[in-house]
Structure formats: C-alpha cells, structure tokens
Amino acid sequence: MFVECRGTYAWSSKVCLIFLQVFALTISMEESVALASDGVFGDSESVINHKPARRKLDDIAGSINIDCGIPEDFKYIDAKTGLQYTSDAGFISSGINKNISSKFSSTTLHKSLTNVRRFPQGKRNCYTLRPPEGHGTMYLIRASFMYGNYDELNQVPQFDLYIGVNMWDSVKLDNASHLVMKEILHAPSDDDIYVCLVNIGCGEPFISSLEVRHFHDSSYRTESGSLALYRRLDAGSTTNEIVRFKDDAYDRIWFPYNLPDCESLNTTVPIDSHAETEYKLPSKVMTTAIRPMNSSASLDFDFYIGDSTLEFYVYMHFAELEALQENQTRNFSITLNGNPWGEANIVPKYLHSRTVNNKQPVRGSKLKFSIHKTLNSSLPPILNAMEIYMVKGLLQAPTCQEDVNGISRIKSFYLVEKNWQGDPCAPVQPWDGLTCSNNGYESPRIISLNLSSSGLRGKISPSLFNLTALQFLDLSNNSLTGELPEFLSRLSFLTALNVTGNKLSGSVPPDLIARSEKGLLSLSVANNPDLCTSAQCKENKNSVGPIVAAVVSSLVIIFLALVIIWSLKRRKKATKSLVRSPEETWSLKMENQRFRYSEIVSITNNFQTVIGTGGFGTVYHGCMLNGAQVAVKMLSQSSKQGIKEFRNEARFLMRVHHRNLASLVGYCHEGTDMGLIYEYMAGGNLQNYLSGADISTSPLSWRERLQIAVDAAQGEKAN
Ligand SMILES: *[C@@H]1O[C@H](CO)[C@@H](O)[C@H](O)[C@H]1NC(C)=O
Ligand SMILES: *[C@@H]1O[C@H](CO)[C@@H](O)[C@H](O)[C@H]1NC(C)=O
Ligand SMILES: *[C@@H]1O[C@H](CO)[C@@H](O)[C@H](O)[C@H]1NC(C)=O
Ligand SMILES: *[C@@H]1O[C@H](CO)[C@@H](O)[C@H](O)[C@H]1NC(C)=O
Ligand SMILES: *[C@@H]1O[C@H](CO)[C@@H](O)[C@H](O)[C@H]1NC(C)=O
Ligand SMILES: *[C@@H]1O[C@H](CO)[C@@H](O)[C@H](O)[C@H]1NC(C)=O
Ligand SMILES: *[C@@H]1O[C@H](CO)[C@@H](O)[C@H](O)[C@H]1NC(C)=O
Ligand SMILES: *[C@@H]1O[C@H](CO)[C@@H](O)[C@H](O)[C@H]1NC(C)=O
Ligand SMILES: *[C@@H]1O[C@H](CO)[C@@H](O)[C@H](O)[C@H]1NC(C)=O
Ligand SMILES: *[C@@H]1O[C@H](CO)[C@@H](O)[C@H](O)[C@H]1NC(C)=O
Ligand SMILES: *[C@@H]1O[C@H](CO)[C@@H](O)[C@H](O)[C@H]1NC(C)=O
C-alpha cells in the first residue's frame, strides 16, 4: 500500500513515494471489504506531477487546453479535435464562472464557448501557464472570447490582453455572437507565462478559452518580440471549413481563402508524406491551391493595414499539385507593393511543400502582393497557403528576477490572501501593497512593501532580504513572532521600517538603532511586548536576565514532563475505552483534528496547487502554519460519494498508524465542504518510479523494488 520515506533505506530519500492513484484504489478495497461499504472510492483517472500547473499531456506535446468557466474538476474530450479540455481553476485564483445566455448556446457551438470566466474585481487578472518544455522555446498561445450575453446586460465589453508585462492586443467584439480569437507565437524568457486581462473601464473582462501549443523547432523566428497572428489562410479550400488539429500537428487554425478571378486546384495525393518538414504543414491545407483563371495573369491580393508603423512577417507556402509534362514549367516571382519580395524564380516541387518568407520585417499601410510567372514559364503561378504575423515588441522588461523570487516566496511563506497574480510590478499596476520603481523599459524593482494589518503569522521572512532595492517596509499590526532579524540592517536602501503591533521578541539589532539615531531610518517597533530596545536588553543580559531565563526554562521542562506523563496515563485509559466505544474516541479525536473551511483555504493558499484528482475530488498541496507540507483532498460537489464514505475514510485513517502509511493530519466538514488533510509525500508518484517513466531519476534496482513490495505488504498488514 504506502511506502513512506523516512531514511531507512539508501534510496528512500529519493523514492518518497506514492500515490494518489494507488492510494484511492486501496481505500476503495478497504472500504468495500472491511466496512462493506457500497460506495466505490476514488476511481482516480489521472495522476499529476507535483509541479504547479504541469498537467498530464494530450496528444500534442506541451499542449494546455483550458475551457475557462467550467466547474472545477470538470474535464471533457472535444469531439472535433480529440483534445482534452480542463477547468481553469488551477491556473487562476480570481474570477467567476458564468454560462452564456441560452439564446446563444447551440449544439453547433464549440463547447468551450458556452461558458466564460468573468472578472468583476481587480484592474488586472492573470492566468499563469507553465508548459512543461519551459522557457526559451516557441509556443502558440490562443485566447478565445465570445460574449454570448452571459451577464444578460447586452453590453459587449472591451478590454486589453497582455502577454506577460507587454500589451498583446485589444479585445473588441462587434456583438454578442462575435467570436474573437487572439493568437501569438511567443518564446517566453521564464517558465511561467502570464496571460493578463486588463480592465480599461469599458466593461468587465472575460475569457472563453485558453490554449497553448509547443512548436518543437521554432521555424517561425523574429529578430525580437513575439508574433501575433494577423491572417492564416488555406488558399483554394474546397470544403470551406477551417483546418486544425488533428490535420495540423500544431493545431494552427487555417481559414478557407478564395479569390474572385482565381480557380482552385487540388490533388488527392498527400503532400510531404515521406518527409518531415520544417513547418509541418497540414496536407489537407497544402493539397489545395489557387491560380489565376487567365493563365497569363498574375495572382494579386492585398491587405489593408492602416498603420504603416506596424511590422509583419509573411510566410507563403507552395507545393506543385500537377504532374508536369516535359514541355511544361511553373516558375514565378513575388512582389510586395511593387518591389521584389522573398525569393526570385520560385519553382514549386511536385507534392513537396516549400515556404518563402522575409528575413526582415515588412511594413506599409497596405500590403499588396503580386505573384507573377516568369518569362518562359508555361503555367500560371499558384498559392497553397499563407500566414501573416504582426510583430509585438516586448519592450517592457519584467520585474527584476531576484525581486520576483523574493516576493513569491514571501507570498507563499505568509499565504498572502491578496490578489497577487502575474508579474509583481506590471502591467498597469503593481500588486496590492507594493510600489515599484519606474525604470522606463528596464526591469522595475520593488521599492516598497506594505503588509500592514494582513494577518501575518510566524517569523519575519528571510526572503525579505532578497528585495534588495526595498526602501519602505511596513509589517505593522500583524502577529509576527520571533526576532527582528539582523539582515534588515543590511538592506542598504531601507529608510522606513514599521513593525509596530506584533509579537516580536529578542532585541532590536544595534545597526538598525544606529541608523535610526543617525536619522537614516524611520524605525517603529512599538507595541511588541517582548521586544527590547537595546539599552534595556543589555542590562537584562548582564544581570538577572540569563538566570531568570534558566529558572523559567527548567520550570517549563518540569511542567512539560508532568503534562506528558499525565497525558500518557490518560491515553492508556482512552485505549481501554476504545475497546468499549470506538465511536466515542473517534469523535473526540476527530474534534481535535477538525479544521474550518477558511483554514483549509489558507492552508492550500486558496487551492492554488493541484497535485491530483480522483473520483472523490481534487487533491491540493498545502502548508500548515508550522510549515509542515500536507496534501488536502476535497470532496467535490459533483462527487457521487457522500458523507458516509467520507467519514469511513477519515475514521479508517484515524485508526491506522504505521510507518508505511501516510497519516491523516485532520479533516474539514462544514456544510457541503468536506476535505481530508494528509501527510505530504514529496517524492511524487510511485508508479513513475516503478515504470521508469521519470527519466530524471535513476531506475530502481530489483532489490529496491522488492523492498517497496515488502513495505507495501507491511502497510497493508497494519490495517
Ligand atoms: C452552467 O450550466 C451547466 C449545465 O449546462 C451547469 O451544470 C453549471 O452549473 C452552470 N454554471 C453556472 C456558473 O451557472
Ligand atoms: C456579429 O459580428 C460579426 C463580426 O462583425 C458579424 O459577422 C455578424 O454578422 C454579427 N452578427 C449579428 C447577429 O449581428
Ligand atoms: C478537385 O479538382 C477537380 C478538377 O481538377 C474537381 O473536379 C474536383 O471537384 C476537385 N475536388 C474537390 C473536392 O473539390
Ligand atoms: C489575360 O491577362 C493578360 C495579362 O494581364 C491580358 O493581357 C489578357 O487580356 C487577359 N485575357 C483575358 C481573356 O482576360
Ligand atoms: C507539350 O507537349 C504535349 C505533347 O507531349 C503537347 O500536346 C502540348 O501542346 C505541348 N505544350 C506546349 C505548351 O508546348
Ligand atoms: C525561372 O525563370 C527565370 C527567369 O526567366 C530563369 O532565369 C530560371 O532559370 C527559371 N528557372 C527554371 C527552373 O526554369
Ligand atoms: C527558361 O529560361 C532559362 C534562361 O533564361 C533557361 O535556362 C531555362 O532552361 C528555360 N526554361 C525553359 C523550360 O525553357
Ligand atoms: C499600508 O496599508 C494600510 C492598509 O493595508 C494603510 O492603512 C496604510 O496607510 C499603508 N501605509 C502606507 C505608508 O501607505
Ligand atoms: C489591525 O488589524 C486588524 C485586522 O487584522 C484591524 O481590524 C485593525 O483595524 C488594524 N488596526 C490598525 C491600527 O490598523
Ligand atoms: C536570497 O538571498 C540569499 C542571501 O543573500 C541568497 O543566498 C539567495 O540565493 C537569494 N535567493 C534568490 C532566489 O535570489
Ligand atoms: C506604523 O504602523 C502603525 C499601525 O499600522 C501606524 O499607526 C503608525 O503610524 C506607523 N508608523 C509610521 C512611522 O508610519
């Protein structure tokens, strides 16, 4: 059953273990046998890595498919693409789920558009995406929006979309049924990709779906910035339908395109069937093309841009579809706004794709393309497909990475409940309580942190030391304990420190006092009953202080010893009564380990990190106030299993204690909110170790495997 990771075996530190899957399954067997329960427990479908937002992957490597606004824990397979869509709950901590108005819901509408997540609060709300391939490689990110009168107000909002700290686009919808898709090819500089919706005062932002695809080799390149999709056209389409996954391995969406004076040509023989090509173009798109009806005319088309400062990259894709005779040639060149563009004398190869693109970005208020045959070409030009991307300069640098790391650790250290999402300083405004320096396009720095009256507990976070540009720090009116750390005096730009109204102890570091006396620092330390200013502390230390401390601490030790002896005696009695009335003892124990729902929210940092799902519900990572890591399993509202099974599992785990079993820390039962808190096993999933799926660890030897089997059997026997 469970193998636990205390340092008994050489490998155990690495092979901490298990489980969600093995776990839920075993419980179900236990329950049905021992308690003859009819409920079937935890038919876990998937086991998820412990890293945040790293999901089990679909057919497309690195793909993330989020249907924004569906209930948490919900997922489904899209019939058209065969891709699995999940809820956005693990990717954002704010917003409200809404269904679109039934007037706009139809069976033909893509399921992901029938619901939205709306953001009535906060000027900006950010999704955090973390594709497994990490940073420095190209991703396609697609955000879709359809209003569908979800709020019954019939007012189409307008808002801005950001990628990281930089503007991506404005979202403007013409009417309630207008579907707007924004797509960008983006190579993030960090593993976390933020997609932010910014309220510009023209109605509440919302979003319908969010998709991420990984481009294995980045065929699409820019000198700088990212590429926002302007057009992606399937020329000569005979079906008049869009093409996407599975026809397109990257799930690019191709729109049908035909021109008035052109005819379409097609072949039934697949293109690039024997060769892996750079752009992985879908055969369905490349087997159709357009050519001018007048075989001596050119292929002309233009795009009205309006703004001549915008820059574009254009990709034209060609493949010969006709088997040419000896005396036939197809040979053509391209011009843009009258100037030669791309390569001269293009001769497409039969059933092989070829892409022509510009190395330098092009611009103009109009992009007028003309493809014309060369002098001795016997056949007219063709065009199979085309893509146009607009360059999005990523001018604004994100917040200094050290500050980001520092403030992120402070956030998780104190389980800060503010709406802290995306980059700490940008876009638009910093996180609540933060002030950042304005360095133009350079990385902003955090210069002020105000966590006054924020319910902080525990010691002063050492990560504050990483905010090296900090000038102002307000931690007043909290419940902070421990010492006022010496490192605060090494924050060289600090000019104001307010820790008034806490429970700090020890003495104020002399350097802080010195700086305050020199007028370099505004220091407020009042209302900390156990905190000494230096003069008094020295006195105490030199005289009675240590003696008093010694006496007090020995008294404390004696008292503790008495308490332990007394409680051991009590426990013996309790053990006896367990024989008589297990129910009674159980209730008592349960009461001690009962948590309020609000505490669960705080422990899991508002259910931020999902580590697994099962039939029972979702399992979250959590952190207790004492710093111990836990796994919190919440009973989902939609779960068929009810209170009885929930109690059975809690009761069962309360009874059983064994080295090889994960123990129960506590439970929560408040109305319909039910959850169990387990000891956290950091090592991940045993299955991965056994199967060797995780290549970052060395494979287990047979001896280790045998030991796991023995441990599992011991854990089993303990029940
Ligand atoms: C949306 O509709 C589905 C049923 O189609 C329902 O289960 C769900 O609760 C609704 N969501 C909201 C937020 O009303
Ligand atoms: C909504 O706007 C789209 C895009 O402008 C347009 O194609 C469509 O006809 C409009 N629908 C209605 C009902 O006005
Ligand atoms: C393909 O082209 C031929 C003519 O070459 C035409 O008869 C046929 O209808 C086209 N196929 C489709 C699916 O349109
Ligand atoms: C075909 O195009 C050529 C060159 O543009 C033009 O001279 C000729 O008149 C056109 N023929 C027809 C039938 O339109
Ligand atoms: C090409 O050759 C074929 C016979 O192989 C002939 O029928 C046709 O007219 C020729 N076309 C040209 C443009 O010379
Ligand atoms: C294509 O046409 C150009 C210009 O007429 C010529 O220089 C080139 O050799 C031709 N290429 C082929 C493969 O016929
Ligand atoms: C086209 O012209 C080029 C030279 O201008 C010549 O090398 C080539 O063979 C010609 N192609 C045909 C099919 O006549
Ligand atoms: C810090 O935040 C509190 C409220 O959270 C506010 O009352 C206080 O004025 C702020 N301090 C400064 C210096 O802005
Ligand atoms: C201190 O914080 C509590 C809540 O944590 C708040 O009710 C109280 O008003 C705060 N006092 C001051 C002086 O800010
Ligand atoms: C934070 O500061 C400490 C002390 O200087 C340093 O050891 C640590 O590497 C820093 N952490 C980060 C993430 O910069
Ligand atoms: C420190 O914080 C307390 C409580 O929030 C506040 O009353 C006091 O004015 C602050 N002191 C300074 C110097 O800002």
What are the main properties of this structure?
Jelly Rolls, Leucine-rich repeat, LRR (right-handed beta-alpha superhelix), 5 domains, nine-stranded mixed sheet, seven-stranded mixed sheet, 19% helix, binds 2-acetamido-2-deoxy-beta-D-glucopyranose
Characterization of the model:
- The N terminus and C terminus are likely disordered.
- It is built from eleven helices and 40 strands.
- The chain is an alpha+beta fold and 719 residues long.
- Helix content is 19%, strand content 28%.
- Strands 2, 8, 11, 14, 15, 16, 20, 23 and 25 form a nine-stranded mixed β-sheet that branches. The chain has a seven-stranded mixed β-sheet with strand order 1-36-37-38-40-39-35. Strands 26-27-29-31-33 form a five-stranded mixed β-sheet, covered by helices on one side.
- Helix 6 runs antiparallel to helix 7.
- The protein folds into five domains: 206 residues, Jelly Rolls, CATH 2.60.120.430; 138 residues, Jelly Rolls; 132 residues, Leucine-rich repeat, LRR (right-handed beta-alpha superhelix) (Alpha-Beta Horseshoe), CATH 3.80.10.10; 39 residues, no CATH class; 94 residues, Phosphorylase Kinase, domain 1 (2-Layer Sandwich).
- The structure holds 2-acetamido-2-deoxy-beta-D-glucopyranose (11 copies).
- The site of one 2-acetamido-2-deoxy-beta-D-glucopyranose has 2 residues, from loops.
